TrEMBL record:
Pfam families: Glyco_transf_7C (PF02709), Glycos_transf_2 (PF00535)
Domain Galactosyltransferase C-terminal: 182-226
GO molecular function: glycosyltransferase activity
The keyword Glycosyltransferase is annotated on this UniProt entry: yes
Family as reported in the entry's similarity comment: Belongs to the glycosyltransferase 2 family.
Protein's name according to its UniProt entry: Glycosyltransferase
Region (Disordered), start-end ranges: 399-422
Keyword field contains Glycosyltransferase: yes
Annotated pathway: Cell wall biogenesis; cell wall polysaccharide biosynthesis
Residues covered by the Glycosyltransferase 2-like domain: 27-140
SUPFAM superfamilies tied to this protein: Nucleotide-diphospho-sugar transferases
Amino acid sequence: MVNGRSVPGNRWDLLDGLEPAKPPAVSVVVAHYQQQAELDRTLAALGRQTHPAGRTELIVVDDGSPEPPRVPAGVRLLRQADEGFRVAAARNLGASAATGDVLCFLDADTVPEPGYLARMARLPALAPEAVVVGRRRHADLAGLPVDAPVEQAGPAAELPEPQWLRDAYRHSRDLLDADDRSYRYLIGAALACSRWFFDRVGGFDEQFRAYGGEDWEWVYRAWLGGAVFAHVADAVAWHDGPDWAGRDRDDPARRARKDAETLLLTEHIPVAGSRGYGLRTAGVDVAIRLGAAPSSAAAYVCVDSLLAALPEATVCVPAEFAKVFAADQRVTSGWPVPEPNPRVVVDVPVAVRADRVSDLLRQAVSTVGVGTLGSVLLGPPEAPAIRIDSARARARRATWGQDQFETRVHPDADPDPLDADPGLAGYLGGWA
């Protein structure tokens, strides 16, 4: 059984002022590759944390450096073969060896201020679904003593902080108002979550074998799994060097690498704004399940009217109707649909003509899972004709045994079930 508590929607603010009964056991996983000086500075900073040393486990994972890094006594060193950029695999390796209740991921060149671990661990220790990101600031720390207090050295050598990220945190009230695309504002170099939730979501996707993207893919999966996103603004870690926008600006392959990352992400994050406008990807954003239909004609009218309202959806129909829809790749007789789990599932127990509720359908699909709204019912609550359910609501329900999101009911938006003779010709011709 999971320990801790849940909150409605993304309301981490309801935990303001609360502290764990005792400091949680924290495992810090530091990813490293050929950055000895930077690693020395980060480990020195981790040795100055206000979080109790006896409740802190330090694990350095080396991604195949030609020479193993040096780490002080008490720091565990793990290594993996040099097979290219494999920070996803390195983080997974560190997590698999960790024993703490809270996992905190850092990069070797990201140096935490003294209060960082205590502030990052608070929410995951209270609410196991919390996924938090610290404030990553930037400074030119090269040449400074590795034991120089970063809370002083960082501001003295500060570099520009990404304005788009600062704006995102401000506009979302530190992610309190997170939505389906807020995964872009959580970065793996300054990320923390409970060990229970990491195991539930699964590790970082090791298909990502170039710089960037593996953290966004994981965070989006976490969002679908019911995560509570929070930006902990006073948990500051200093990255040694500029943000990506200030690096390698003269490299002609720089943009191509970013495009390759984006293309890979489109296969994993099919939400609007991250997928193509016309092209389909392997991931399914909205999945519709048709439970039954009295005839092939009724199934046709139902599925056609649903896809007219939600053309991006994938529809699962009973196997007996598979041949009717063989020409449309959006229609399948298999369930579940391919991973990752759909952001929204639309359940239609019995075939209905959905064009009469198309506006409500579109609105529900775009709003469930955001804020405190988890589900929308079209029709009477005891037997809705259509149920729109967010992945986040389903995940929380499975964890806690009860709804942690609100359900909105439209009892009068009750499309009539179709009978065996739905007047197919009239439907297609527009006179019925």
